[in-house]
Amino acid sequence: MTRLRHFLSSMVGRLFVILLLGMAVAAIGATMLATSKRQQEFERQNLNRIADRLQGYVNLLDGNPELRERLLAIGGPSVRALQPGARLGRADTALMEVLEDRPGPVSRAHVHFASFRSCIPKLQELLPPPPPGHRRPPRERDPAFIPPKCRAVDVTLNDGTLLKLALDSPAVAHNGILAVDPWFLTLLVLAIAVLAYIVARMASAPLQELAAAAEDLGDDLQRDPLPLRGPREVQRAAEAFNAMQHRLQRHLAERTQMLAAITHDLQTPLTRLRLRLENVSDEALRERLIGDLAAMQALVREGLELARSAESAEQRAALDLDSLLESIVEDAAEGGGDVVFEGGSGSVLMLRPLAMHRLFSNLVDNAVMYAQRARVRVERSGGAITVVVADDGPGLAEEQLEAVFDPFVRVETSRSRETGGAGLGLTIARALAEKDGARLWLRNRAEGGLEAVVQWPASAQVVAPGRAG
């Protein structure tokens, strides 16, 4: 039931239902109209046959006055003298309209429906009454079955003689709307359903392609533009999307160029300022000023790294996560940090090696900076590949776990750039992770401390377990 609701909530499902209902109504309406036309044609032909029999019998009586009594006693095909006292019903206007166009006395005939006993009274008298609980034969219960009818006809011959005749029509079956073959209806509904689903998929495919492109754009701004194909409206949407992508690329390039220019232009004055600070006689003041200058230089460098992380054109390659993490852990341990690699998963993914090195180096450095101890492990569950960098530090408040990824947000309350950084490290780390299709988030450990989690979904490009190609 959940899958059905999910399908009906999608555009494919909604288009499918709309098309199915519309096409089904149109098909059923067309079938009903065609059946109605066939039924009308059948009834017209049946009335013509009845009129032919009546016309032939009346012409025979009109042309043979001396044999009239004898012919009336014998009767003709479905035509005979009307029994006295016959009960008449409504006029049969349809048959009278047909008779009006016929030559001879029948054109002046008046026709009424009558009880069937008026047509074949002797047969009715011979039939025994039905037993209690009698049910009609199945054929007589068929909606496509037309029971026999009896008509009373008043016709004046050319010599002025008025004849009262009984005209019966036998039971017939016709292809009425309720007599449509159920197999035909089943095949019709199935064909309509298949066609509606195909049309719905074709109509929603461009939107799905556009949605997938929008999701990919967040990970790879340099992805190939959307192809311009399909209906005119779809091509316009693709053109607008490609134009947006081009503007974002240009904006990012301009930002990177601006930051690079600022960094380059600041190098000389910052170096000159550093030299001049060495001449400050007050040692305490000199150290504070040099610290502020170093913070300025770090801020510029991190800002430039943030811009480059979003624009990087580094190509993906088969990367052994275990080997990469072991190398980073060894480097951190050689630098004096208490860092241990607890275990890998033998996973090889298509990633950007330099970007991943910066990402995990950043996370390990943060763990060592705030907790002096870090533990790194790789997990593989349900197809997802997860890298966890855990520390035993103080952790974070729940409301800060997401806020720390915003630019220039520093959880460390001191003003020291040496311990708190510029507030761009985690922002850069998340940008690097998302560009390679991973998610990065923080969570507190139950036993104390913090975990930085980088996870690739099951759809990640896995090359081969334990071996880089």
Layout of strands and helices, then pairs:
Blueprint lengths: L1 H8 L1 H53 L4 H7 L4 E3 L6 E4 L1 H8 L9 E5 L6 H6 L11 H4 L3 E2 L2 E8 L5 E8 L2 E2 L8 H38 L12 H46 L5 H29 L5 E4 H14 L3 E6 L4 E4 L1 H19 L1 E9 L2 E8 L8 H4 L13 H4 L4 H11 L3 E6 L5 E7 L13
Parallel strand pairs: 9-11
Antiparallel strand pairs: 1-6, 2-3, 3-5, 4-7, 5-6, 8-10, 11-12, 12-14, 13-14
Helix pairs in contact: 1-2, 2-4, 2-7, 7-8, 8-9, 9-14, 10-11, 11-14
Describe the structure in your own words.
The chain has 469 residues and is α+β, with helices and mostly antiparallel strands. The chain folds into 3 domains: 2-128 and 140-179, no CATH class; 220-313, Helix Hairpins (Orthogonal Bundle), CATH 1.10.287; 316-469, Histidine kinase-like ATPase, C-terminal domain (Heat Shock Protein 90, 2-Layer Sandwich), CATH 3.30.565. Helix 2 (11-63) crosses helix 4 (93-100) and helix 10 (321-334) packs across helix 11. Helix content is 54%, strand content 16%. The longest helix has 53 residues, at 11-63.
Brief summary:
This protein is of the alpha+beta class and 469 residues long.
Question: H/E series, N to C?
Answer: HHHEEHEHHEEEEHHHEHEEHEEHHHEE
Number of helical runs? 14
Low-confidence stretches: 138-145, 413-420, 465-469
Characterize the overall form: rod-shaped
Strand content: 15-25%
Keywords:
single chain; about 475 residues; alpha+beta; Helix Hairpins; Heat Shock Protein 90; 3 domains; five-stranded antiparallel β-sheet; five-stranded mixed β-sheet; 14 helices; 14 strands; about 55% helix; about 15% strand; rod-shaped
